[in-house]
Design goal:
This protein is mainly beta. The chain has a single domain, classed as Lipocalin, CATH 2.40.128. It has one helix and eight strands, in the order H-E-E-E-E-E-E-E-E. Strands 1, 2, 3, 4, 5, 6, 7 and 8 form an eight-stranded antiparallel β-sheet that branches. The radius of gyration is 15 Å and the shape is globular.
Length: 139
């Protein structure tokens, strides 16, 4: 798997989530959990961490690693407390595409995403899910 794509997937959950166009998330100290499954791993990769969320906007465009990542996002769609978007990536090992969603009720959140990569004619699917809850104010 392309290192940039893996970094994108792992970095997706380490960014500070906030709100966008009606999808609100209270700033503060959050505990976040994520799980990632892919065919080459026998068990899901799981991680739990805490992070101080200070940002006031959530934009899927922020998930692009850098200008040279070869990834672009669609315009996000907002429906109540849920924002969803799709992503297309190109790279030396082949194209990838995926869909993502993020839901928040202010003091808790959850989301999921799926990327499908074409690696030399073979399809590989990576699925992620995440959830979080606000623990209180940041130190």
């Amino acid at each position: 798997m392309n290192g940039i794509r893996m970094m994108f997937l792992l970095g997706l959950l380490s960014v500070s989530f906030a709100h966008a166009d009606g999808v609100s998330l209270e700033p503060g100290l959050w505990e976040m959990r994520f799980s990632m499954t892919m065919p080459m791993l026998s068990d899901p990769q799981e991680r739990t961490f805490t992070d101080c969320v200070e940002e006031t906007t959530f934009d899927p465009e922020d998930f692009q690693m850098d200008e040279g990542s070869g990834c672009s996002t669609s315009s996000p769609e907002v429906d109540g407390g849920t924002i969803s978007w799709s992503m297309e990536c190109s790279g030396p090992m082949g194209p990838s595409s995926g869909t993502w969603s993020f839901t928040s009720n202010g003091d808790s959140m959850q989301g999921e995403g799926k990327m499908v990569s074409d690696l030399g004619g073979q399809q590989m699917e990576i699925s992620m899910s995440w959830s979080g809850e606000r623990l209180g104010d940041c130190d």
